[in-house]
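Data card: per-record layout.
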Amino acid sequence: MSVALAHRLASGEPVFSFEFFPPRTDEGERQLWRAISELEPLRPTFVSVTYGAGGSTRDRTLRITSRILNETGMDAVAHLTCVGSTEDELREVLIRYELAGITNLLALRGDPPGGPGTPWTPVPGGLSHADELVRLALGTGDFTVGVAAFPEGHPESPDLQTDAAVLAAKQRAGAQFAITQFFFRPEDYFRLLDRAGEHGVTMPVLPGIMPVTDVRQIERFAVLSGADFPAELAERFHALADDREAVGQLGIDVATELAEKLLAGGAPGLHFYTLNRSTATREIFSRLSS
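The structure for this 290-residue chain is written out next.
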């Protein structure tokens, strides 16, 4: 699978991908597989499965990613973070991934163990930066490795140029693609590409889109991630806050418009944060196709 994804990324064909997270309950897992079965006909380039804080979902990430590979026709990318693990423990996870046939990774430093806004402190013998994890992965197995990018800058970056330099360092370490944090203004994505290009970044950078279906939820995610939920957009959603269906439809409208502008501007594809639901993503794809 690693070779297939690497070739697709290098081909210049549009890349479309969906992100899922490992649920914590049986009902959550049933919802996840409903979403997967409903989205599979869209034939995404790949789907990705997140990795919980401190590795809390490590086994579920491996199990779900393996099942996607074995029971669907979709390629899959497993996330891995540096949080709470020594280098030796991370190497063991990588070996388990490869033995399970998982050869596509998204290598992330992860959030500080104390939560957003707290200092980053690795465990003794652990890693501190995503580029170190990229090197570890490539030194352990035959992986295609992606990394994160931040259109509005990583919350811990002192400035946007430093943030772009960090992305370039990940590419030098061997990363072959990047996926951005979600955002709402297309110009933020294109400015990121300009800055990254100045630092020598040539790998595909997939823009991440999160359709708004719940106003309070998206505002909470924005605070946690450091993304900006523009005031004028928030006002439109708050005006409909008591009508969940209307919020969902506006979320689809806004995400579709963003996707159209990104593709028209030359983005190599789109990455959708699905929150283990399929309705909004399927509707956006239908509109883009028509």
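Known properties of this structure: Residues 153 and 160 are 5 Å apart (CA to CA). The longest strand covers residues 15-20.

See the next section for split statistics.
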